[in-house]
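Prompt: Have a read of the protein record below and flag anything odd:
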Amino acid sequence: AQICAPTELIECATAAHHQRPEETGCMSADGRKKRVCNHIDLSWNKGRLALSEQMQSKYFAYKGSFISQPLNSAGFAELVRNVRAAMPDLEVVVDECICEGHKVVTSSTVMGTLATPLFGYSVTDKILAIAAMSVWTLNPAGDIEAEPAPDSDELLGQQLKPSSGLRQTIA
């Protein structure tokens, strides 16, 4: 399935001979899902922020409850660097990825050990496994804008609190 309006399909078919699908604005649902998963892997897992930034729209905005206002690409990169520094063994596994129209929804597990304080939470030697859900919006060219679900950051905060019943630990 493509995200083009019917009047754009002829234009997309012609352009497809000379450009990649994301350049024509005709990226398939599988292409959009792959792009989001690659963005997650490049940014959170590998710290390849210059590469992941190339996948972002110039209007990219990251929103979360731990931050007071949406972050642009540079702010998002700084956040990722801070989280990766606090959790050097950080791994984000995308458990499920679905796409409808310009939206991609990911359900992920964020795993790692908190080696330095993060967002006011103390160091722990336990490996944390945290459920996170994000809704990503892609523009017609396939550029990404991330919009984490409001409960994702709140759930992270609850799981990092020593007294929380929601905390999940492994070994």
User: Anything to note?
Assistant: The chain is about 35% helix and 25% strand. The chain has a mean pLDDT of 78. The two ends are 43 Å apart (CA to CA). The longest strand covers residues 127-138.
